[in-house]
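Re: zinc ion structure - here you go.
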Amino acid sequence: MKTLLPTSTAGSLPKPSWLAEPEKLWSPWKLQNEELIEGKKDALSLSLYDQLRAGIDIVSDGEQTRQHFVTTFIEHLSGVDFEKRETVRIRNRYDASVPTVVGAVARQKPVFVDDAKFLRQLTKQPIKWALPGPMTMIDTLYDAHYKSREKLAWEFAKILNQEAKELEAAGVDIIQFDEPAFNVFFDEVNDWGVAALERAIEGLKCETAVHICYGYGIKANTDWKKTLGSEWRQYEEAFPKLQTSNIDIISLECHNSRVPMDLLELIRGKKVMVGAIDVATSTIETPEEVASTLRKALQFVDADKLYPSTNCGMTPLSRRVANGKLNALSAGADIIRRELAGK
Ligand SMILES: [Zn+2]
């Protein structure tokens, strides 16, 4: 990327109210069959337009064609029975009724590749595409087949690699894996989590990213954050291993969070997508607030490796708020670009 401080989002953006009920996770579709297929494409185009209008440099599909960042990918795989449900604890935080792994998991056909080709036709801007990470995938399932989290994660990593290679061929510039589970299961991250991630990116020539956050601004997450104390040092556990991994970019939650910014020193040398937009509040940041977070990050991230971004996805927010936040992100990045140019 030639632009200094290229802006992007963590991934998801709100859907139009004619497509799905707004400000809600797992929101049911309002359209069906052919109308739904067309509606998703229209929403993807709109979402791209919103990003371009706000001056976002690295654009995405806004995850307009998926109901949920993990579930939708798994729905396309064989070996998982969505009718057979068990209650499990998600990321040690809340109970949810989840599908069961009943046999060998496999990808019968591409999941998002057509959507990526469609987005590629619409824009010449660099595209980032988000996929769930292997560890986060296993954490939203009940496994009655492999009976080993590591084994199941490894199978998912192989499947993700197939999808990622086809996304790359479709013209995606950055493939991102969402791994909020990296902030919870530290022993597993170091034992096999990062290795599974590297299996997922094996052989890719495009850039790769991992997004690690404290979750959407939903109650289960905000309640959990209240228990984490005054300093959130979770990133410290995974950073040393990630610093020596093959992953190019690390996407993080920074703004309004209690993550000590100096932890970023542990991944010095990597490109960092610095979350400068809080997704857990409808208050729109001022450009100066965004700039202030970026300034702090610049103490630990080299300017040519800093990518201003959002803390997490914005799907549970209103479109008005999300667009306001995109504008603030662009304007805040601009302030810092001018400061750096003046030096
Ligand atoms: Zn996130």
